[in-house]
Design a protein that fits this description.
Layout (H helix, E strand, L loop, with lengths): L13 E4 L2 H14 L11 H20 L1 H31 L9 H6 L8 E7 L6 H9 L8 E8 L3 H10 L5 E6 L7 H11 L4 E4 L5 E2 L3 H11 L4 E10 L6 H23 L11 E4 H6 L10 H11 L3 E11 L5 H22 L3 H8 L1 H33 L2 H7 L2 H24 L16 H21 L27
Parallel strand pairs: 1-4, 2-3, 2-5, 3-4, 7-9
Antiparallel strand pairs: 5-8, 6-9, 7-8
Length: about 500
Amino acid sequence: MDGLLGSGVGGMSRIRIADEHTAHEATYGLWERDPRLSARRVLLRSQKVVVAVAVIALGVALVLAPVGTIIAILGVSSVVFLASTAFKFWVSLRGARYDLVDHIAPAELDALQDDELPIYTVLVPVFREANIVHRLVTNLGALDYPSEKLEVLILVEEEDDETRDAIEASGTPDYMTVVVVPKGVPQTKPRACNVGLAMCTGEFVVIYDAEDAPDPLQLKKAYLAFRRAGERTAVVQAQLNYFNARENLLTRMFTLEYSYWFDYMLPGLDVDTLPIPLGGTSNHFRTSMLQELGGWDPFNVTEDADLGIRAGALGYRVGIVDSVTWEEANTSIPNFVRQRSRWIKGYMQTSLVHARSPRRLIRELGWRRFWGFALLIGGTPLTFLGVLPFTVITFVTWMTPVDVLDQYFPPAVLAVCLLNFLLGNGLIIYLNMMGPFKRGAFWLVPWALVNPLYWILHSIAAYKGLWQLIVRPHYWEKTEHGLSAQEGPEPSPVGKAV
């Protein structure tokens, strides 16, 4: 059934329940149209054969020539680690030379008339978020957009009565509707978003997470950015940052990372027209193009990165708009590992999906963009997997007498490993130091020196993600929100009252 069960401010919330057809299409639509683009199957038969042959060959080599094989593994791993890190460094330096953010002048915003604005749909997938529902409703209510042109769909899982009850108790305005996502497998954010996409009526659609506090003017800025962008611009990405950056060491590292990613990495990818893995929130889409792309892959746990690659393969562009969405940085290490293991697992999924047809991918992207995809999407999880072993090897070699090491490893190999460790970490520390400059957060710069420890956490998360890829590939590990001692950024005076 798909219908309205109630409406009104301060009374019963507007509720729509997705029907079985919508739920089926949200789950299996992409798979049924093009199975090779879906992560429902982790490995195709041909990929399983390649993996099996590689594992057998590695096992035989370790038995016949253990030292030589280990040396070869170290050499190849060093090249991959350094190539991926150097690629990010090069792209970020390219991004530092340009300001590709689509700046919107206040006069342009003031000139907008309500009757010329299109219908805008806001999708907010939530699951077990009752503790921050009040914050969610307040933040969405602050959006400066005419209510008669605004459609907010809060996507709630069928079993999540607690969150649904909290929304009803919060007294949502008429333009906010609770959409009940029917129970099904996989139970993921992209599946819920596909349900919302099937029900939305907006010319443009944006995704926000439950804890997000977007710039109240963001929808208008995105609309203007689309209006003056080329017809091939399918997505406009707003910038993300954290309101609780000063809370602890982990939140500082999060902020450093996001600052360099959105201020340097994304512009660098854009200027060289390389595939851009989208962020999971504050992506503004032309609804028609998003539907043409087939929506999100519900079996991919980083549906945003996958969608960015698919958009690039069709020749669509991604723009960047000067509007910030404030998020809550993880304050807890276990919560961080849960979140990052899912992200890294998703990068592995995306790499495996798009590596199924290398010729097709090269034909669609071209060689230069193909290598950009390989080094960023494929190289990132490989880099994180290499951090722990390289760290252990580095400390072991420092503590082992030179004459003992020389019996097993040529000095040249150890020198390359040491260079890789020092240069790779040095490049990433430098990148993180660059991050705060455009935002004026210079107090964050010294904290970049702690990045090697931050990467060890990533490495732990990467091994967890790899294990889950094998045993639970489609499991969406929940990230807890509302753990920060801060409830959000300072409220903006612009916007509507809820």
